[in-house]
Amino acid sequence: MAEVLLKHISKAYAGGPTVIRDISIDVKDREFVVLVGPSGCGKSTLLRMIAGLEDITNGDLLLDGQRINDRAPKDRDIAMVFQNYALYPHMTVYENMAFGLKLRNMPKDEIRQRVTRAAQILEIESLLDRKPKDMSGGQRQRVAIGRAIVRNPKVFLFDEPLSNLDAKLRGQTRIELQKLHRDLQATMIYVTHDQVEAMTLGDRIVVLRNGDVMQHDTPLALYNQPANRFVAGFIGSPPMNFLPGRIVADGTALRFESAGGAVSIRLNGSVHQQALAAYAGRAVELGIRAEHLTDQPMNRQRSYFSPEQLIVFDAVERMGSETLAYFILEGQRFVARLSGDSTVDTSVGVSTFWDIDKAHFFDADTEQTIR
Amino acid sequence: MKKLLPYLLVSPYLLHVAVFVAFPVVFSVVLTFHSWNIISPMQYVGLANYERLFNDRLFWQAIWNTLRFLMVHIPLQILLALMLAELLNRTVRGASFFRAAFFLPVIVSGVVVTILWQQLLSFNSGIINRMLTAISLPRVAWLDDPAVAMYSIAVMATWKNVGLYVILFLVGLQSVPEQYYEAADMEGATSWQKFRFITLPIINPTIFTVVVLSTISGFSLFIEPYIMTEGGPMNTTLSAVMYIYKQAFQYYHMGYSATLGFCFALIILFVVVIQKRYVEQEV
Ligand SMILES: Nc1ncnc2c1ncn2[C@@H]1O[C@H](COP(=O)(O)OP(=O)(O)O)[C@@H](O)[C@H]1O
Ligand SMILES: [Mg+2]
């Protein structure tokens, strides 16, 4: 059992501004929770407070129901994998992994057993006699994880463990981390600024911004029902397209009109009609993902919109599996995700079809999703 | 012309080396085979100087004195410098003040420092003995007791030089990433274990540098005994360099003095090579 509960946690560094504001998060037993947000939003600070490396200014940190705010890091039964691995340069891989166990006066045989077992899991048995400087980034990273595993802790913390790896290795390691989580059946809290890592690894994801929780939910919920404009723009690749405008009520007709007037979308019959009726006359922002903008006419039953004006793409990226086509509308950068065999090209006018039921509308003032 | 230019450009340096390094070295090696009192012409004496050296009890006592000095001075120097550097490395209030304060004796003239310490250590009127008396302890003959004098000098020399090594260790300590200590905190290491198993091994090269530097500077011990004790009591603070100096400029035995110097240089080289061997095995 290992449940981590953060209750109204705040953090202000001595003499500095508050960097974490009243955050409450629950991490369930054996859950893989990812803290994600742009650089500087306080992810590391939050993780380090859980580890015991930073003091908690306000609030309670509970591990399995016990308040551990004042417990020394070593007494928390929590292991952490650091961003730059923090492997001791003068020790071999074996010594690095055995260090913490030796400090706990564990019998030599058991140390050997545990290190060997962890090395097997991570497939680094052949590296046990090497020093960190004689290994690649990916190997060091495994050793750093190994050092955490041997202690068999209740909770694993990871601070951007993949950020020093190249793209290919990062992809592989993501998959291995998932497997590791399944095999170890441990509670893991993982920090990253990369939303792809967050989406692929997390059972649940906490999106942070400037020390506030923006949303705390499963990957698909974040993707399909973002709580606000920030989450909508942060999660997903390519990022969501945005278009500022206002809701106009004209008798019974309800429309979204873009600020520049190029887009006027009829909302009657769409899933948004009811929620947006209350916004008549107010400024909102339309958000729509690349895959909901196509060059193929859609099923007529669905509520869709097709601007009269033809779109001229200014860049086309052919990925094989899909084609990303870029254009600018009223000064906003837009991207459409078309099929891989699409023949669209730059500088030709194309009709586009927008799946309005899949679009999102955000209150222009609060940036909250209108539901 | 093209071939000459490079030589022309380095000629000032070569001239300097020739006049101030190469010539004195060669000349002093030549001197070791001669007897010379500066005034009369040199006289070739073969290996007589070397023979005399091996039977010169005072020279070997001076070497032994110097080694006794080093045996106290070097460990004390390293320990003290490391401790002060550790303290200064934490964010102590006024750390830059202390850094400057520890460094000050390094740049003050050795003569001034020595005279100052002579007063501190004076048997009758020195502050240190007065403090001992104040807490009803017996006074110590810091500079007059043959069993104590050299160690008093070792402590004083440490006080003078420690600031330099504090700076070197501070640089070493600051090169240890904070994350190593955080990782060790998570593993449950105590402050001592962190120092023993992380700091020490990582700053080992700095320790070696400090050992070699303070060995070499310690071997050249001269000003302190020359001013404070003149080598006494009973020649127990007569350092090797001081003896070589006396042979040359008090007795004008230039040839013999050169022989002593040459032999002494070999001893220093020997010691440093051993130190290097030992420390290289450690890394
Ligand atoms: N030791 C510190 N002292 C003062 N401010 C800090 C310290 N560490 C981090 N901060 C500040 O706290 C904020 C959050 O930092 P951090 O948790 O490292 O962000 P992230 O890991 O999300 O990039 C930043 O504005 C950073 O400048
Ligand atoms: Mg960080």
TrEMBL record, chain A:
Signal peptide range: none
GO MF, one example: ATP binding
Pfam family, one: ABC_tran
Tagged with keyword Cell membrane: no
Keyword hit for Ribosomal protein: no
Alphabetic keyword roster: ATP-binding, Nucleotide-binding, Sugar transport, Transport
Residue ranges annotated for the ABC transporter domain, each copy included: 4-235
Protein's name according to its UniProt entry: Multiple sugar transport system ATP-binding protein
UniProt source species: Spirosoma utsteinense
Lineage, opening ranks: Bacteria, Pseudomonadati, Bacteroidota, Cytophagia, Cytophagales
Automatic annotation (TrEMBL), chain B:
Membrane topology, record value: Multi-pass membrane protein
UniProt keyword terms in alphabetical order: Cell membrane, Membrane, Sugar transport, Transmembrane, Transmembrane helix, Transport
Record family assignment: Belongs to the binding-protein-dependent transport system permease family.
Domain ABC transmembrane type-1: 63-275
Localization per Swiss-Prot or TrEMBL: Cell membrane
Record-linked Pfam families: BPD_transp_1
Stretches assigned to coiled coil: none
Transmembrane feature ranges: 12-39, 59-85, 97-117, 148-171, 202-223, 251-274
Stored SUPFAM superfamilies: MetI-like
Protein name: ABC-type sugar transport system permease subunit
InterPro entries the record matches: ABC_transporter_permease (IPR051393), MetI-like (IPR000515), MetI-like_sf (IPR035906)
CDD domains per the UniProt record, alphabetical: TM_PBP2
